[in-house]
Design a protein that fits this description.
alpha/beta; 5-stranded mixed β-sheet; 5 strands; about 55% helix; about 5% strand; globular
């Protein structure tokens, strides 16, 4: 009798577990059958939804997977359908469904690039992500300086107008005086060209990001060349064209001299003093770029046709293209830090951390302004974080904070502490982030999980309850499913 008492709880748990597995397997098969039923009824939306539910429940039946892929391929190619195809193409299952999904996405990429010929979209990513504005009009301001002639200001305005016309009005700009999306300012800093007799147009654009939000793009234009001679309005116009495309989110370059985004605005542009034309390749790239759903944006108001994968390829493709672009840029301008920063970001994605650090140290040595130094220091912190060298990562976070203390650094700090098992400091950082942005669901989930891992269920519940009180519509968000009991 005593043995039976000991065995019963174990047997009961095993029985419950078996029923649980059977229930989920049964649900997966049921959803697959419903997907097949709605496919025959030509109700592709319902069919996709049921197939997706079956797939998420772990249905690995080869026949089911093949039917699912065929349905996706032969249905309207929505953003959701593209994401589902990518999921199957990348899930590691070596079957016909995986092969068909990869083959379809490969052909889709070819079709897209045939539709937008001569584009250089492959260079568009920033830290392996697509960044651009998500609503129109995009606002911009020009910081007035007493020594900036009116015709220089007009040249910058003309450049904004030219990009608007080139986009066939898909891109619209509005000049404002406060809180712009794109902030244009001027400088007279002299940065010596690395090559005798060659004068680079000195200008740069830096994004202001927090988590997955694009806050602002900062464009800085130099008013004079290395000899102290003022640039003409046409030269400022040409430089502005280049930097405005960066400010639209395209932080890469072209290697065709005919394109506005050519890797360096060289001596030829300055000497001729003629306004550049936005090329067909520039227009094609811009049009395609703003049809890709961004990873980082300021809003979600625009309609998109593609996710990044079918346009750019997988992470390996993007990383290779970015590294190749950076090496070419370094060859053209070996004393300009941005090439080394871009190469380091590609190397981070390839997990070549030592080479990434080497390139970032070169960039730090070449950096002439605080914005660039901040970007280098942040990336140094990032590479050491990925390499699990947490003390070095914290060191560079603190060095970056000396220049600018922003949310991005606190978020990286929180992740460093969390992965280094310093849950107290990780929680402190997320509490700080939530004090500034209490409705950020990522911060809420991460802080809740930290408290749960510490068995501090009262504080975990408090964080969730406060968030749901402000956002009652989020109560049924599936992301809260693992901690649903805390919401009761």
């Amino acid at each position: 009798m005593k043995n039976w008492v000991k065995i019963f709880p174990i047997a009961f748990c095993l029985a419950v577990f078996a029923l649980f597995i059977l229930f989920y397997l049964t649900r997966a098969e049921l959803y697959a059958n419903l997907g097949s039923y709605y496919t025959k009824k030509d109700n592709y939306v319902a069919a996709q939804n049921y197939y997706e539910k079956s797939y998420l429940l772990g249905n690995k039946n080869k026949d089911f997977r093949e039917k699912y892929v065929n349905l996706l391929i032969n249905s309207p190619l929505t953003i959701d359908a593209q994401e589902r195809l990518v999921s199957i193409a990348e899930d590691g299952q070596k079957d016909q469904a995986n092969e068909s999904a990869r083959y379809f996405l490969y052909n889709l990429k070819r079709e897209i690039h045939n539709k937008y010929p001569n584009n250089y979209i492959q260079q568009a990513s920033y830290n392996q992500k697509i960044i651009h504005w998500g609503k129109m009009p995009i606002t911009y301001s020009i910081k007035q300086m007493k020594d900036v002639p009116p015709d220089i200001i007009k040249a910058v305005n003309d450049a904004f107008d030219s990009w608007e016309r080139a986009s066939s009005a898909r891109i619209r700009f509005e000049r404002v005086s406060i809180n712009p999306d794109i902030a244009v300012s001027f400088t007279n800093n002299k940065i010596k060209s690395p090559n005798p007799g060659e004068k680079y147009v000195i200008a740069y654009t830096l994004p202001d990001l927090s988590s997955n939000k694009l806050n602002e793009m900062n464009v800085v234009l130099n008013l004079s060349n290395v000899d102290g001679e003022p640039f003409t309005p046409n030269q400022i116009y040409n430089t502005s064209l280049h930097e405005i495309f960066h400010a639209l989110g395209f932080l890469g370059h072209s290697f065709d001299k005919e394109n506005v985004m050519y890797v360096s605005q060289s001596n030829e542009v300055i000497v001729n003093n003629e306004r550049r034309e936005i090329s067909d390749a520039d227009k094609s790239t811009l049009e395609l770029f703003y049809k890709i759903r961004p990873d980082i944006t300021n809003a979600s108001e625009l309609h998109y046709e593609y996710i990044p994968y079918p346009v750019m390829g997988d992470n390996a493709d993007v990383s290779y293209a970015k590294a190749d672009e950076a090496k070419k840029y370094i060859n053209k301008a070996p004393k300009v830090p941005s090439g080394y920063i871009d190469l380091a970001q590609a190397l981070i994605n390839q997990k070549d951390y030592d080479e990434a650090v080497s390139n970032l140290q070169k960039a730090l040595y070449l950096s002439k302004n605080d914005d660039t130094k901040y970007l280098v220091l942040y990336n140094l912190a990032l590479v050491y974080y990925f390499d699990k060298e947490y003390d070095f990562a914290l060191f560079y976070v603190n060095k970056a904070k000396e220049i600018k203390d922003d949310d991005e650094l606190h978020l990286l700090n929180a992740e460093i502490y969390k992965n280094n098992n310093n849950k107290k400091m990780a929680a402190k950082e997320y509490m700080y982030l939530l004090s500034k942005n209490p409705d950020n669901i990522e911060y809420v989930i991460n802080l809740t999980n930290i408290y749960i891992s510490k068995h501090d269920y009262l504080n975990a519940r408090k964080v969730l309850k406060q968030y749901i009180k402000r956002n009652p519509q989020e109560k049924k968000n599936p992301r809260f499913k693992p901690c649903r009991l805390l919401l009761l």
